[in-house]
Amino acid sequence: MARILLVTGGARSGKSTYAEARTLELGTPAHYIATAQAWDDEMEARIAAHQARRGPEWVTHAEPLDLVKVLRETDTAPRLVDCLTLWLTNLMLGEKDWETAAKALVATLPDLASPVVFVTNEVGLGIVPDNRLARDFRDAAGYLNQWVAAAADEVILTVAGLPMKVK
Amino acid sequence: MARILLVTGGARSGKSTYAEARTLELGTPAHYIATAQAWDDEMEARIAAHQARRGPEWVTHAEPLDLVKVLRETDTAPRLVDCLTLWLTNLMLGEKDWETAAKALVATLPDLASPVVFVTNEVGLGIVPDNRLARDFRDAAGYLNQWVAAAADEVILTVAGLPMKVK
Amino acid sequence: MARILLVTGGARSGKSTYAEARTLELGTPAHYIATAQAWDDEMEARIAAHQARRGPEWVTHAEPLDLVKVLRETDTAPRLVDCLTLWLTNLMLGEKDWETAAKALVATLPDLASPVVFVTNEVGLGIVPDNRLARDFRDAAGYLNQWVAAAADEVILTVAGLPMKVK
């Protein structure tokens, strides 16, 4: 079974930087699997800033929806998936069945030969959101994180750029 | 003194599942003390989903306000109180004196013979809420968590379904 | 180099109380550097409540913006800076260059002879805020926390009034 690492944390807590370093320790070149879709200028700027930070040791793939396919196609080197929360957003905004997709993703992990580092977000530690969509999203994000964490060999929570071992 | 355990965490972080397992380890049948009140259909669905997951090893009590009374009445077997945050919501929405109620709860704990596992929520790690009521609620929730944690023998933070030891 | 401690956590998680105790362990009298500005009655009440809790072992300084100056001027005894998040708020609301100010603060730390305990807030673990200003603020707060944490000798996350060691 592949080595599966889940890196979770709040916004700007250093998740991606930490996850990138851990992925490159597993071997280079590594695959960077970006789930972000540029819905607006702000998101486009965030994606550009992320890409600018990464060096030539990365092969970048953009895949907003079909993570199982891209993980199978890149199964010859370490992969970083950044991030599960945007993937979930894409599924929910596209009115896909996120629960089936999430379970299919978790079910695929034992088949993979090369390691996968997943980045995700903690979104459930604030006040209950006013609107239903936000509540449904944070519930889904919580379940997704639980399912991937259960399948992971290691789970890290980043706080202020520093890793805390969860599992 | 009874063994007191506090399980805190974000939404859908696996708090209840973890707390249920810990309670049943302490003895069965155990008392499940539900503080939830069904204010609307969404809440009713959440309560039903919670109940469906629990098995026959539980005796369920619904008590939205008087936790001290129900803890004294059930003091012959382990209890799970799920959750303190909804209890606080009930107190505040009912315009009760939550601070006096919280202090009375904490003052009762040393008198109890059987263990109590409390579930609560972390609600203060997001952006400062726009509205005053939400700010007052998150302040109150923070103090309540501190007071119960100070009286607890063990405090666990759940992240992605996994326990992190706080105390 | 001075001993630098960063205490982070959610609202009402016991950050200030913990940080005050740690500062006083380093020597008394200690300097209390308050960054809060009373923008409204609610804030004024919070500041008054904080001050009422502190005893005569503190020399209080109010400094909403120029932390470098006050840290240099008070460099003969332990300092508590409470808190970085309000300092950032002051910089951003005053349309200052927060990033330059934050980097200047971090660059000053190695020059200081006396220890500094910083209090800050975790604000990035909730749902993505609706408005742009709140998103920019939580991004800035995340980077500020990372930069200070990288320069700190010790980083603590408070949960329910209890310290968790991050670094």
Strand arrangement within the widest β-sheet of chain A reads 3-2-4-5-1-6-7
Largest interface: A-B, 28 and 22 residues
What is the count of β-strands of chain A? Answer: 7
Helix-strand string of chain A:
EHEHEHEHHEHEE
Q: Give a short account of the largest sheet of chain A.
A: 7 strands, mixed
CATH level-two architecture of chain A: 3-Layer(aba) Sandwich
Strand content of chain A: 15-25%
Alpha-beta content class of chain A: alpha/beta
Shape of chain A: globular
Question: Count the helices of chain A. How many?
Answer: 6
Over the alpha carbons, how many angstroms does the gyration radius of chain A reach?
15 Å
Helix content of chain A: 40-55%
Q: What is the CATH fold-level name of chain A?
A: Rossmann fold
What's the CATH first level of chain A?
Alpha Beta
Mean pLDDT of chain A: 93
Uncertain segments of chain A are none
User: What oligomeric state best describes the polypeptide chains here?
Assistant: homotrimer
